[in-house]
Design a protein that fits this description.
By secondary structure, the protein is α+β, with helices and mostly antiparallel strands. It is built from four helices and seven strands, in the order βααβββαβαββ. It has a seven-stranded mixed β-sheet, with helices on both faces. It is globular, with a radius of gyration of 15 Å.
Length: 139
């Protein structure tokens, strides 16, 4: 049985075990802002999605992670579909996300209807990384 719900404070340990980029204090802010979801399979949390707003108006998925043991089984698609539906119901017409060009996530998002929308190169000392690819989808 699959369920998706907003993240709550008691998800902290699970969340931080999968999302190693989010500082602990930001997790609690995401909970308070209701901009984080947890995917549950048979009573166990197995995935997460967090977002913010690009230009304060466009929903921007900043992290999607499914536990490794559950990857490749459609859970990520389920979570993104849920998030997109929530955004559409809230009146948004466009969603965004991004991924590094050396990651496979770009192929996942393209299969879900996202289109390439440009990139960002960070080469300042201490911030170097492969190009960040931005993707958008009209809802």
């Amino acid at each position: 049985m699959i369920a998706i719900r907003l993240a709550v404070a008691t998800d902290e340990d699970f969340w931080l075990s999968l999302d190693t980029h989010l500082p602990k204090e930001r997790f609690f802010k995401k909970v308070a802002e209701q901009t984080a979801y947890v995917l549950i399979d048979n009573g166990q949390p197995i995935g997460l999605l967090r977002y913010n707003f690009f230009w304060d108006t466009i929903p921007f998925c900043t992290m999607l992670v499914i536990a490794e043991s559950h990857q490749g089984r459609g859970f990520g698609k389920c979570l993104v579909d849920h998030w997109e539906q929530q955004q559409k119901e809230a009146g948004h017409a466009l969603c965004m996300t991004s991924t590094q060009v050396d990651e496979n996530a770009q192929h996942f998002y393209r299969k879900l209807g996202y289109q390439d929308a440009g990139g960002l190169l960070l080469n300042s000392p201490g911030f170097e990384q492969p190009m960040e690819l931005f993707l958008v989808k009209q809802l």
